[in-house]
Amino acid sequence: MPIFYPDILEQKTEARTFSYGDKDVMLYALGIGLGADPMDERELAFVYERGLKVVPTAATVLAAGARAAARSAPAENPPGHRVSQLNFVMVVHGEQKVELHKPLALSGTFTQTSRTIGAFDKGKDKGAVVVNETVWTDEAGEKVATLTGSTFARGDGGFGGPSEGAPEPHAVPTRAADSSLDFTTRPDQALLYRLNGDRNPLHSDPEFARRAGFDRPILHGLCTYGITCRAVLTGITDFDPAPILSHQVRFSAPVFPGDTITVDLWRDGKVISFEARVKARNVTVIKNGKTVLR
Q1: What is the pLDDT at residue 87?
Q2: How far is residue 236 from each of residues 222, 224, 240, measured CA to CA in Å?
């Protein structure tokens, strides 16, 4: 089913309520590699209930059940609305941003709503970029988090929408990085991370990965995203998640479980710029990264 423009800009999912607890918080932290050294008390605080802290980017997975339910039951659309449906076989995650209006709680019940806020036509043979926004509110009706993600839909170009106007990516400084940190992923990292809710076989099934053009399963892009937040926690905030207001990236290449990811960091006041690369394969896997501190 194609993209219908401008109808897609009115497309949304019904509100869904979800809950999470300390187990979900700790599983996410383990999934991005925190706690690998159980004697490191700074990292232990994210994977042990005594003095537990929440990684800000956990917002991308803590509502996984609510997102799945919302996709299967879209909200009632306006009369005459044509429902757009992407060709998910040809979809690639383009960008991700989490903005926290308050630090994430250790547990709780929340409501999320999602809507499409942008659709950009790159041409019939060049695909489309679709931007979605998800907002969490707490039981008092106050905003907790806003998640913005762009999808590159390789098979859905030529729908007649605008070709320009998509948000410009953050420009990282041209000077040498202020610091660089290495994070070695485990060979089974994707098998652990998928327990957060993303069971796409691209990350677990060797045969499926080969059919998709990879010689082995790849790491979830959102796992790499979480590792870049881990870099900011490690190198900038001294493992304190509270100062992180927002964290955003553009995905540029896949990571394979077992890769060592080098995150280059630049600090300019409350703006942290970063990019991530796998030196062994000479490839940049995250570009245009930006964290804003409170």
Answers
A1: 81
A2: 21, 18, 9
Concerning whether 188 is annotated as a catalytic residue, the answer is no
24, 121, 156, 198: which is the annotated catalytic residue? Answer: 198
If the chain, 294 residues long, is cut into consecutive pieces of 10 residues, what is the mean pLDDT of each piece? Answer: 89 94 98 97 97 98 70 65 85 94 97 96 93 97 97 91 90 98 98 96 95 94 98 98 98 98 98 98 98 98
Domains of the chain (ranges; CATH) run 7-153 (3.10.129.10), 179-293 (3.10.129.10)
Evaluate if pTM is beyond 0.70: yes
Edge-to-edge strand list for the sheet holding 143-153: 12-20, 108-121, 128-137, 143-153, 91-100, 244-251, 283-293, 271-278, 260-268, 179-184
- Please state, in angstroms and as integers, the Cα–Cα distance from residue 87 to each residue in 66, 91, 180, 204, following that order: 22, 7, 38, 22
For residues 17 and 63, give the distance between their C-alpha atoms in angstroms, rounded to a whole number: 9
170 catalytic? Reply is: no
For residue 132, count other CB atoms closer than 10 A to its CB: 18
Nearest to 8 by CA among 112, 121, 98: 121
Which residue in the list 24, 121, 203, 220 is annotated as catalytic?
A: 203
